Amino acid sequence: MKTAIKLAYRNLTGAGLRTWLNVIVLSFSFVVILFMKGVMSGWDLQAKTDLTQWEIAGGKYWHQQYDPYDPFTLSDSHAPIPPELADEIAAGDMVPLLMTQGSIYPQGRLQSVLIKGIPAEQSLLKLPTHQLDTVTEAFPAIIGAMMARNLKLEIGQYVTIRWRDVNGTFDAHDILITDIFSSNVPSAEAGQIYLPLETLQEMLSMPGETTILTFRDEERERTSVEGFSLKTKETLTASIDEMLKTKEVGQGILYFILLLLAMLAIFDTQVLSIFKRQKEIGTYIALGYTRGQVVGLFTVEGAMHSVLAALVGALYGTPLLWWMAKNGWTMPVDTSEFGVPIAQTLYPVFSPGLIVSTTLLVVLITTIVSYWPSRKIAKMNPTEALRGKIQ
Amino acid sequence: MEKSVISIRQLVKKFPAGKGEFTALKGIDLEFNTGEFAGLIGPSGSGKTTLLNIIGSLDVPSTGEAVVLGSSIGELSAREAARLRKHSLGFIFQSYNLLAVHTVFENVEFPLLLLDYSASERKKMVQEALEWVGLTDKTDSRPPKLSGGECQRVAIARAMVKKPSLVLADEPTANLDADNSHHILKTMETLNRELNTTFLFATHDEKVIGYLRRKIFLKDGRVDKEEWVKQTP
């Protein structure tokens, strides 16, 4: 094996440009595959982190009637805050959230919205709720950048809001946009208005009531709370996990195409080598190599392409990917229109595991692709190979 | 005392040709001893290269027996045949068959790599072999930069570096001019005398024939006649 590696290295370095062209193509695939995988990891991490920070924290209690996919359940999805949770709320480790449907009238147009009441003093979620702690005749409200852009709303603007109270009576009032936040989480932004919890409770005539309770500590063992059902962080992130899995399939096709291109170069080189280097193969056999050892030598040569490609790729890929991880990859279009939790700038994450597994995968596939055509050598007649007469 | 290096008994070699067979060797009987400088002489198609390939364990007899350095070629496994070539045989080809991407040093070093010599031993042995053929100033050159004569001298150094018992040379001067041919042949003759290595040629080149001490003329796959040249003291 040691001899095969030494000879393969000599053959590759001696072949000059032919080797380096293959190595550069393969190294390009290495770097692009790593980049794409890094972007996926970064996106995965970022999406989950954003979702956790802006919306789900450590998990939630949902009112038993609440169904996020059925807006008609909202009118019945409210109950007094369970007294056994009062301490956790007081400690700032749990945030009640009351929800109802309503409409706003920006520039005279009707727009359905989800009105959420949240304590202004909370710090569990990243929402800038301190901006709700404003004394004003109109109700203070914060909205997401996505909604502000769609409805052309700005900070300091007044908008009329309409809702139904607990008895089904319509009421209306002006709200004042006190802040516009950008979260990268569509479910925290799209069509939603955040008001102070007490204000919404008063508007709906539901004092001390809530629809959802979001808690910080996901590790803590939680008992059942009457009227509410527990939703763990895993349950709440299941949909995003599913979406990322679907994305991985698409990415997988891209990796496959990239690998195919690189492997085609290796396969082509091997097939050509076997025909062009017949005399050399015959010479190896005449000098004492078995045909199996020659197959081994050609396979090592092919595999060595990927090792050299990894080294060359590391040479220009390391600073490039480090720069990308530091400065991120800014999307060419507005990501808020995508409808998925994707940041305007994605920061790829290149973990050692990702780098090692990708490298091993490419080396393994290259070795297999190199071995495949090399098996032909085992059927060669050495006397004909020596004269280069095999067609 | 002379020792048998090659012993051939009733050797027949047939090749498939179309729907039938072509018999290249038709019952050859030959014996070669240590230190011989002999040649198989004959026109194209006489069977000399086929016989050389069988002796070199690159091919096997159809019937009969070829015993080379105590090993019966027809009974060797692929691994055993490779071992025989690796340890005891040297090859010199008409078109040199050097590894084009390797330097002169690396080409000559190749057989030693297969024999697991240490780096220092290899260096010493390669230097010695290159001294025999007068190419110590070309160690870092690659074959495409060398003349035909130089390439063949590298091939001789490669064949001789491990000091094999038997060197098989197939038309070694076919691609060389007269001066280079004589130079090469003198080198081989000297090595034959100094190292007592057996040389067996396959040739129809008059220049080579002039150097041979034993001439075996082949015709249509049979030994036509044999000549021995008396050595001048």
TrEMBL record, chain A:
<dbReference type="GO" id="GO:0044874">
    <property type="term" value="P:lipoprotein localization to outer membrane"/>
</dbReference>
<feature type="domain" description="ABC3 transporter permease C-terminal">
    <location>
        <begin position="253"/>
        <end position="382"/>
    </location>
</feature>
<feature type="transmembrane region" description="Helical">
    <location>
        <begin position="20"/>
        <end position="39"/>
    </location>
</feature>
<keyword id="KW-0812">Transmembrane</keyword>
<feature type="transmembrane region" description="Helical">
    <location>
        <begin position="345"/>
        <end position="372"/>
    </location>
</feature>
<keyword id="KW-0472">Membrane</keyword>
<feature type="transmembrane region" description="Helical">
    <location>
        <begin position="253"/>
        <end position="275"/>
    </location>
</feature>
<dbReference type="GO" id="GO:0098797">
    <property type="term" value="C:plasma membrane protein complex"/>
</dbReference>
<dbReference type="Pfam" id="PF02687">
    <property type="entry name" value="FtsX"/>
</dbReference>
<protein>
    <recommendedName>
        <fullName>ABC3 transporter permease C-terminal domain-containing protein</fullName>
    </recommendedName>
</protein>
<dbReference type="InterPro" id="IPR003838">
    <property type="entry name" value="ABC3_permease_C"/>
</dbReference>
<dbReference type="InterPro" id="IPR051447">
    <property type="entry name" value="Lipoprotein-release_system"/>
</dbReference>
<keyword id="KW-1003">Cell membrane</keyword>
<comment type="similarity">
    <text>Belongs to the ABC-4 integral membrane protein family. LolC/E subfamily.</text>
</comment>
<keyword id="KW-1133">Transmembrane helix</keyword>
